[in-house]
Amino acid sequence: METQLKGVRTATPAAQTATRPKKKSLNKFITISLFLAPAIIVYILYVLYPIFTTLLYSFYKWDGVGAGEYVGLQNYINLLSDNVFWTSLTNNTWVILTSIFVQIPLGLIMALMLLAPIRGIRLFSGIYFFPFLISTVAVGLLWVLMLDPLNGIINQIVSVFGFENVEWLSQTHTAMFAVLLVIVWQFSPFYMILFKAAIVGIPEELYEAAEIDGASAFTKFFRITLPLLMPTIVSSSILAIVGSLKAFDIFYVMTGGGPNHSTELLGTYMFKQAFVNFNMGYASAIAFVMFFLAMIVTIIIQALDYYRKKKGAYV
């Protein structure tokens, strides 16, 4: 009997010791869950739920007030034959190309200029970044006044060189160019800050070693700076593409999508369908197409960057 009791007594501490790691793991899981719960709830309510409801509404013909009529994929089928939709998508593509091939390189050049050993160059850091600090609506209104065909400062400068006044925002062949110019002016400083922070983080020893080997400034940039900036370039490209696909305010303020839909974007067209024509189902279809395109492009860029890192290629 004593032997059996001893066996029980000796087994009890061992069992308690075995359960301690499980309790610690459970307590750790509960603690992590409690800290993550607010962020997860906010993400579900303000990101996942709107995406799901947008997809759901896109299958209905709905004016936003009464009961909707289920139409299946009809809204998406109508998009395929909608000329304004394709014009908007083309304009969004121009915005994407401008953001990637103009804004990002210009931001990099501005960052390199700020880090150049030139006396007084740091004074321009605030000047360069100032356009990004202004509200987009204010920027749009400012440039509408500057591009005014009669009293705008841009046309006054043009007239000095003997050219006639140009109706920048009223002609189909100049309106898109004018708004893209404003976008570049406002958002290039954002990429300047990103590249400036990334360049500052590059070890100075790499440049010193390259200088000892006789490398020129051109060689140091393409062999050291540019390869180490690739993660920043990838992140900037994703931000530029997503931002370009959901662009709305600057175009709506400056042109409203006109003239003759020449500056119409998916965002402005979606807004008009939803709040002017009260065609919420069709607007939801446009919105979900915007989301789907942004997601696909982001996945492609991330995949290409993954294979680049896997192969060890930097340029």
Q: How are the secondary structure elements laid out?
A:
Layout: H1 2-57, E1 60-61, E2 69-70, H2 74-80, H3 83-114, H4 124-133, H5 136-146, H6 153-160, H7 175-200, H8 204-212, H9 217-228, H10 230-245, H11 249-254, H12 266-275, H13 280-311
Helix pairs in contact: 1-13, 3-7, 3-10, 4-7, 10-13, 12-13
Features:
single chain; 315 residues; mainly alpha; MetI-like fold; 2 domains; two-stranded antiparallel ribbon; disordered N terminus
Order of helices and strands: HEEHHHHHHHHHHHH
Unreliable sequence segments: 1-11
Strand residues, percent = under 5%
Helix proportion: over 70%
Number of E-state strands: 2
CATH architecture of the largest domain: Orthogonal Bundle
Helix-strand category: mainly alpha
Rounded to an integer, what's the Rg over CA atoms? Answer: 28 Å
Q: What overall form do the CA principal axes indicate? A: flat
Number of helices: 13
CATH superfamily of the largest domain: MetI-like
The biggest beta sheet, please? 2 strands, antiparallel
**Adjacency order of strands in the biggest sheet:** 1-2
Number of domains: 2
CATH class type of the largest domain: Mainly Alpha
